[in-house]
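Subject: for your reference before the review

Hello V.,

The reviewers asked for a structural picture of the protein, and I figured it would be easier to keep everything in one thread rather than splitting it across files. Below is the amino acid sequence we used in the manuscript, unchanged from the supplementary table.
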Amino acid sequence: EQFCNDLWLSHGLADKTIAAYRADLIGFSSWLSRHIGKTLLQAQSLDIDEWLASLLERKISPRSVARYSASLRRFYRYLTSNGLVSQDPTVPLGKIKIPLRLPNTPTQDEVATLLDITELNSHSGLRDKAILELLYATGLRAAELASIRIGDIDFRNRVIRVCGKGNRERLVVFGEEASFWLDLYLSRSRPALRRDYLCNHVFLSVRGKKISTGTLRLVVKKHASNNGIERPLSTHSLRHAFATHLLDAGADLRVIQELLGHACISTTQIYTFVATKRLVTLHSRFHPRNEDKDGLQAGSNHRTRFRSTDPR
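And here is what came back from the structure prediction:
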């Protein structure tokens, strides 16, 4: 608990992140006690290696095992720096290779279809429209959007002050379209949703309280289903779309990093793979020297004849 308190007091980590650290440590402690008969303070490098290996044998994904490893590294660095253990048993641990997983990024046409909400006569419908427009315009995380307060928005400059992961503050910008629907929601629907509650958050539930991240995810899924989008979409899909579509249009990767609130540029670089993959697909479909479905494009006959001839 002292370690978890330090994560909050000294590093400002979010409650969910701290809960994940706690769960990882409890899992390791339980295994260590049951299989080795040791406590966390008695663990050695071989014990940690054996636990991580057992996770992989149980088909736990490499990404999850890497997170467990990171939790232990941070925990034992804390113990070492506070003199609770003499040596850090995680120092000899190697890195766990994580397979590259590309984001689920909707196309611009799919986003346009998602944003085409017709039920704008209801207060919840107008709220949903403002939510979707702002998610795509800013690339905000669901928790960041849910936490926006009225005083965080500068309508004149179309800028929002956001508190992201690790309590890091940043400014995000939004365009005219999102501004129009946000202003309409605030003037028409939010007063009706607010009722008698003195809630200062921008987006409210139908009960007049701060909207939850779960409700935000349901908003995206609902309108994706209503508009016939087959690809599974979430609030994070719009974050991926925001970054990828900016990159496709020529935006600088460092600028996208700042807008997304990534602490490390390597996190943002994943979107370059998505953009490159899309370019390859477009080239394959539309370049005149690529074969069409009937194999009748220029050059195909020559290549067929060449392949059938033994150059030796």
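For the response letter, the relevant points are probably these. The mean pLDDT is 83. The two ends are 73 Å apart (CA to CA).

Happy to draft the paragraph if you're swamped.

O.
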